[in-house]
């Protein structure tokens, strides 16, 4: 018997055909529409520069799902130093870039499902092969997001996240 990949939402009662295994943000929290006309600011799907002073790269916080080979992921932005950002760009299309040492950064995405805030959590950015977003490793603290990354989450937790995102209910962890 096949396992249903969907779920019945406890908020709206509807059956959704698929349980989303990740969510992503379009820009770092400091980005706003007024920066689009700023010549020192750029935003792409993978990198962001704000006023030639702040540098960001997009990556994935991957969380193991217990009892599954699939992971849940948050697509987030991390601020890097000018030096590390320049290095990341230098090797962006270079085969073997995954051998780079991790880059230190600060999480620059607020994930409202977590308390305390996720903005400015310490991270290490691990470059992966060309075509794969970097892996974001959180500092191993007692922050709920860091704990989830280390210990994993259940499918029920993935469902609760999906319901919170879909309905804006934001159950906090």
General description of the model:
The chain is of the alpha+beta class and 173 residues long. It has one domain. Helices cover 17% and strands 28% of the residues. It has 3 helices and 10 strands; from the N terminus they run βββββββαβββαα. Strands 3, 4, 5, 6, 7, 8, 9 and 10 form an 8-stranded mixed β-sheet that branches. Strand 6 and strand 7 form a beta hairpin. The longest helix is centred in the C-terminal third of the chain and has 13 residues. The two termini are 34 Å apart.
Uncertain runs: none
What's the tally of helices?
Answer: 3
Main beta-sheet strand count, sense and barrel state = 8 strands, mixed
Ends distance = 34 Å
What would you call the shape? globular
Structure described in brief:
By secondary structure, this protein is of the alpha+beta class. The protein has helices at 82-90, 144-151, 155-167; strands at residues 7-8, 15-16, 22-24, 42-43, 47-50, 54-64, 71-80, 103-107, 122-126, 135-138.
Can you lay out the helices and strands and say which pair or pack?
Elements: E1 7-8, E2 15-16, E3 22-24, E4 42-43, E5 47-50, E6 54-64, E7 71-80, H1 82-90, E8 103-107, E9 122-126, E10 135-138, H2 144-151, H3 155-167
Parallel strand pairs: 3-7
Antiparallel strand pairs: 1-2, 4-5, 5-6, 6-7, 7-8, 8-9, 9-10
Structure keywords:
two-stranded antiparallel sheet; alpha+beta; 173 residues; 17% helix; 10 strands
């Amino acid at each position: 018997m096949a396992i249903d990949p969907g779920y019945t939402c406890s908020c709206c009662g509807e059956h959704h055909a698929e349980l989303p295994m990740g969510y992503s943000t379009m820009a770092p929290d400091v980005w706003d529409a007024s920066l689009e006309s700023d010549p020192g600011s750029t935003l792409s799907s993978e990198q962001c520069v704000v006023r030639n002073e702040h540098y960001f790269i997009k990556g994935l916080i991957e969380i193991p799902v217990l009892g599954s080979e699939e992971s849940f992921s948050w697509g987030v932005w991390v601020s890097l130093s000018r030096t590390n950002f320049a290095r990341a760009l230098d090797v962006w299309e270079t085969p073997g870039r995954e051998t780079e040492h991790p880059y230190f950064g600060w999480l620059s995405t607020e994930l409202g499902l977590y308390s305390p805030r996720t903005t400015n959590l310490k991270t290490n950015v691990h470059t992966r092969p060309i075509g794969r977003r970097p892996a974001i490793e959180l500092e191993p603290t007692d922050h709920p997001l860091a704990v989830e990354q280390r210990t994993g989450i259940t499918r029920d937790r993935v469902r609760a996240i999906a319901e919170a995102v879909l309905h804006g209910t934001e159950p906090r962890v």
